[in-house]
Model the fold of this input.
Amino acid sequence: MKKKFVVLKPQYMNQFQCIGPSCPDTCCAGWKIDIDKRTYKNYRNIRNKDIANKVSEFVVRNKEESNDEKYAYIQAKEGACGFLNNGLCDIQLNFGEDYLSKTCLTYPRVFNFVDERVELSAKLSCPEIARLALSNEKPMEFDLDEEVLDARHHYSRALSTTSIWHNCFWEIRTFVIDLLQNRDFTVSERMILLGMFCEKLNSVVDSDDKSIILKVISDFKVRMHMSATKQQLNELPMVIHVQIKLLMEMIYFRQSNHAKFNEYSKQSNVAFSIETMDAKVVEECFVRGFEKYYKPFIEEHSYVLENFLVNQVFERLFLIGNHVNVLDDYILLVILYSIVRFYIQGVATYNKQMSLDEAISIIQTCAKVIEHSPAFLKNLSEHIKNSEFDTWALLMVLVKE
Done:
């Protein structure tokens, strides 16, 4: 069923079309694909013999779930969806979009409801989305349009801006995106400033006075234009051995069968001499790789990480979701940013160069393996919070360059 909505979306969504067999990755590879109850029944009624045989072989009733959205799932065939045919979906080719499950219909798009409006963005785990979203040198911009959308799309989050905190939705979001797009500061400095802002915001999260929340925002707007702010950021210590230890722990937490991710891991391990287990050698390799290969690339292409962060903030309703936890939201952003940065630096050091296309490929691959693993991200978040260090200070150490 189609329905008209008011839609807010980043402009890269205007250009997006699935590139099918030309795609360098397979969107359904390595994932369990949930099938809703309506789709499951449609599949069981298919009379096309070849497709019906595939349904019998690959579609499994999920008897452990009472949720109609996870009524069944598709078993993988050689690491990918059993309905995949030369990069295209057999179901869609034979029966059209109406026969797709909610999961397949929606991905890589992300739909959120904010009051009566739809917010549409997309996952960077899709190579074409990553290319469109990350390669634009200009700050990410957003369009507000009326669009006709399939009402069956899966909606990730729904938010009503009626509470005091959510009533500050636009002020908080606008400030955060403006901060992340402020090119007077390096991306690392922007992340540190965002951490300082989040720490202060966390102290007033339970306030029933909107003016207190708005004052935190206005104070930080002033702070952004103070000359002393840059100096304060420069004076923050860079504790490289702690940073490396945390990053290495992050990487070792995650095992994957994704070939490209494993290759990037291997290259980074070699580049930083991690197998030597010699902390001094690893630190020397890390610093040398940063200065010689990572820093020159990121100074010219900082917009790649900027766009990555802005997309995360918009897609996840950063700081303003239904279950507000400022610390958890910032931890997640730091984890994703730090892992991406680690791999770009590692691969650049290994190959003694970094290209824009390679950096985008690294981000897309990390998104595929890391972002779509909630259990992994939760474990990492708990690991950081249970550290012997002050959590907010530790997060600043992780993003400091």
Remarks:
- The mean pLDDT is 89.
- The chain has 17 helices and twelve strands.
- The longest helix spans residues 326-351.
